[in-house]
Amino acid sequence: MVTAEGWFERTDLVSEAERKLWDAQLDQPRQLNPVYIGPPDPASGAAWELDRQIRAGLIRQILLGRGPDPNPCVLRLEGARITEELSLEASRLACPLDLRGCYFDERISFEQTRAPAIYLTNCNIPNGISADQVCTLNSFELSGSEIRNGVTMLAARIGGQLLMTSTKIFKEDGVSLSAQGLTVQKGAVFRSFVSEGKVVFTGSTFGRGLNMGAAKLTKSNDGFALDAHRLNVKGSLYLKNGFRAEGEVDLTGTRVQGVLRFTGGRFERSGAQVSRNRVLGLARVIVEQNAYLDREFYANGTVHLLDAQIGGSLRCQGGTFTNDTDTAIYAAGITVGRDVELSKANAEQGEDPRGFSADGKVVLSDAKIGGKLDCSGGSFKNEQSIAIDAKGLTAGSVIFSDQSRLDGTVDLRRVQVSGRLQAGICLQASQVRLKGLTYASLGDEAPDLKKRLQWLRGKEYIPQVYRQLASVYQSQGDKGDAKRILVAGESAQFRKRAWPIKVLGWIFRGTVGYGYYPALVLVWLVGLEVVGGVLFSFLRSDMLLAPIYINPFTDRADFHHPLGSITGAHGETDHGYPAYQPWLYTLDLLLPVVNLRQSDIWIPHRAAEWCSIIFIIAGWALATALVVGLGSMFTRDRQDPNTSIP
């Protein structure tokens, strides 16, 4: 007879299953073994007859210590059909609940329940579970169970582990697992977990990590497969080895004290994502160790890493990031303690030999990388636009190899590299922006100087990039190449000017090397002196050069002045003027300031006159080029002493 409080007596039991459960509580040695009602095949549980049915009220009575044993050790049951609603709301259970392979006719309620532990494994629960504010001393497990109409665990407190290995939860047009504010003391395992509907972990805490390896999250109606922003994971976070999400995985603001590993994870857009392309939200995450988006990782949409902080390395070797109409990776302002590896893995170390691949823009602007940015062997594709946006990035070293594939512009403006820059030949002048790029050294495998200079010749002239490269060569003791770089920079400047300025540039370069080779003036001077000496010796013999007091074209035709009568036997003319010396005469024409009196006494006529004018102009040009070149050199030294080349 049912008591006034609603409790059952043994005589009230209506099925063999209920009597087995009642008697098992009296048989102390058997309490540790499950009460076997029938084969645990819950998929067909709705058809189980009375002999396998147990009313939920009896289970509740035993759990509250009102059954045959007031101090039950555990309630373990296998292969039963639980009729009526199992409601344990606001109850304190006297023992753990362990149901295996059972079928539930109605919804289960654990709201505000306090229990030593709850295990519902390999069960079929067609009407869902309400477990808001449930509190367990040990674990809460739903492994292998199939649950429809969702599970709610708002503000639940799990003292042990939360186990949902191979659990399947379905909720059409809604949230399949709602666990905002959940706290799990010893970690959560969701390996091979399946959800058709949205999973929500907003603001939850996982004490020893969260493992969702090989989980499948699909059919979200609002575009979010996993809404888990502001998680606190006091261990490692795994979405790896076959993890798949159709819809955005939002981990914005999450803190992970261990490793963030998404190796082999697959993140795809769902049909509900109409207005956004983001599939993985990691903005402002804090990861104290390494983050892995590598080895068969796949994202079909934007991976958002805005202002993320990673204490170790960000490894993306073998990862594929595709968003051909937008940004593949948005990591502006990211801080990484060690390396960012957007490269090809080392096959010799047994790693996946496939390289990093991005189809869409990769944004690393204002990133701070303590180690290296390694893009060797990586593929970056964003044709007709920017493939890599690294404006303002700082790093210990930046590496591109000849195997790096770049289809699009690489923006390295204001990048600061405290160590080595290795650019290879993959960066062409038409696809790289270098204004403000600084670096301390160049990689050993970088191309020769000629190819380096081709790398600097972009669409616009930027003097800083030439001075930066020259300073590196100078710091390595190669002052000759440093000068050649600076000269190439000046040539690039004049190539961008109008043609009259270009002509002046050619003269400026040929005469004094834009001020970096002032000794070239002496070469030109010696060459002109030799040419002039020979030329004016020939012109004098034809009387096209004559003393100032004789005009060979106006004096009488029969008036003849033999050469000896003009020069004299002692090196002077008959009138006491200096004797004609073609070499001194040439030098007098070439030196604008110095007066050797040769050009004052000996007057050119006809062809000699034109030759003299040419030599005077050449002399003034050389002098002007020398003065301007030296002045430019001193001005450059004051503006940028790091590129002062003696």
Describe this structure in words.
The chain has 646 residues and is α/β, with parallel strands linked by helices. Among the domains are: 290-456; 520-628, no CATH class. The strands form four sheets. The protein has a 27-stranded parallel sheet that branches. Strands 22-25-29-33-37-41-38-34-30-26 form a ten-stranded parallel barrel. The protein has a three-stranded parallel sheet with strand order 2-4-7. α7 (520-541) runs antiparallel to α11. 48% of the residues are buried.
Name its key features.
single chain; 646 residues; alpha/beta; 27-stranded parallel β-sheet; 10-stranded parallel β-barrel; 11 helices; 53 strands; 22% helix; 29% strand
Secondary structure topology:
Elements: H1 16-26, E1 35-36, E2 53-55, H2 56-63, E3 75-78, E4 81-83, E5 86-87, E6 97-100, E7 103-104, E8 108-109, E9 114-115, E10 118-121, E11 124-125, E12 129-130, E13 135-136, E14 140-141, E15 146-148, E16 151-152, E17 157-158, E18 162-163, E19 168-178, E20 183-184, E21 188-189, E22 194-200, E23 205-206, E24 210-211, E25 216-218, E26 224-227, E27 232-233, E28 237-238, E29 244-246, E30 248-250, E31 255-256, E32 260-261, E33 266-268, E34 278-281, E35 286-287, E36 291-292, E37 298-300, E38 302-304, E39 309-310, E40 314-315, E41 320-330, E42 335-336, E43 340-341, E44 357-363, E45 368-374, E46 379-389, E47 394-399, E48 405-411, E49 416-422, E50 432-433, E51 438-442, H3 449-456, H4 463-475, H5 479-495, H6 499-512, H7 520-541, E52 545-547, H8 563-567, H9 582-590, H10 598-601, E53 602-604, H11 607-639
Helix pairs in contact: 4-5, 5-6, 6-11, 7-9, 7-11
